[in-house]
Amino acid sequence: MSVTLRLADHVATVTIDRPDVLNAVDLATEAELQRIWTELERDDDVRLVVLTGAGDRAFCVGADLKNPSVKGVDYWAAARPGGFGGIALRETLNVPVLARVNGFALGGGFEMVLGCDLVVACEEASFGLPEALVGRMPLDGGMTLLQRQIPFRQAMAMMMTGQRIGAARALELGLVNEVVPRAGLDEAVARWTQSILACAPLSLRAIKQVVRQTATLSPVQAQAMRLPALVAALQSEDANEGVLAFQQKRKPQWRGR
After folding, report:
1. Can you say whether the dihedral through the CA atoms of 150, 153, 159, 162 is positive or negative?
2. Exposed, middle or buried by CB within 10 Å (0-12, 13-18, 19+), for 102?
3. First CA to last CA across the chain, in angstroms?
4. Can you tell me the mean pLDDT for 77-92?
């Protein structure tokens, strides 16, 4: 399989498993990713998704240019739910998604990172949108996401020169949450995982849905939205459990309902 899915302790680990081509995404891999995201959206037991690439060299270097696929206007016009890899622009996956960046995150791979909520990277990781260097454009989220996540001129510089930035610079720009030595990458991801699982899962779903769906609204308009995940969290058993656990000075036992 070009993508593996592992489920354990409320965490889904999605790994692009094509290390021989730096985890480049071909049509079959794209289809498998789409299937997995749809499956995870239906699984209420999942409270966190960790997205990564196999091996030590790359998270994902984007589309597999050696693999024949739709090109040009036809590629741009084709329906690809959720942007590159099904995650760059996905609006229907409300659980937190953490990118474990273990190497190159280029082109569509970087677009996938931009679609995640949290990012932990090793010191050797690098990020870039080199599409213009090969006569293409970052069509699957890069042009629309990067300018919203870092300062405008820094975003334009990356896209208009194809320049690659290292993990330390990505941290300075706010593209990643933490940079660690490669040997400590899994430990850092585990630490972030425990911090996320300590929070009420329905609260996290509500936070993500509100943030993602109100980003272009004014604060007053956003505050007036009554989004489904928010209502569900407010009416949940976990909302009562959280307060009760605080009063009883114990850790809450989240049930996700």
Report:
1. negative
2. buried
3. 34
4. 85
For residue 236, the 8-state DSSP code is S
What three-state secondary structure class fits 246?
A: helix
- This prediction's pTM: 0.93
DSSP 135-192: T---TTTHHHHHHHHS-HHHHHHHHHH--EEEHHHHHHHTS-SEEE-GGGHHHHHHHH
Q: How far, in Å, CA of 159 to CA of 3, rounded?
A: 28
Task: Tell the burial category of 184 from Cβ atoms under 10 Å away from its Cβ (0-12, 13-18, 19+).
Answer: middle
C-alpha closest to that of 176 among 87, 98, 103: 98
The one catalytic residue in 39, 131, 172, 178 is: 131
Q: Is 32 a catalytic residue?
A: no
Marked catalytic residue, from 111, 172, 187, 241? 111
Phi-psi region of 232 (alpha: psi -120 to 50; beta: other; left: phi over 0): alpha
Q: Which two tokens stand for residue 4?
A: 């593996």
Q: Is 124 a catalytic residue?
A: no
Residue whose structure tokens are 């911090």: 195
Among candidate residues 105, 104, 94, the one with its CA nearest the CA of residue 49:
94
CB atoms within 10 A of CB 229: 18
Coil, strand or helix at 25? strand
Per-chain mean pLDDT for the chain:
92
Short-list 194, 189, 171, 54, CA closest to 123: 171
Please state which of the ranges 47-56, 153-162, 247-256 shows the lowest mean pLDDT: 247-256
* 100-50-30-114 Cα dihedral, nearest 10 degrees: -60
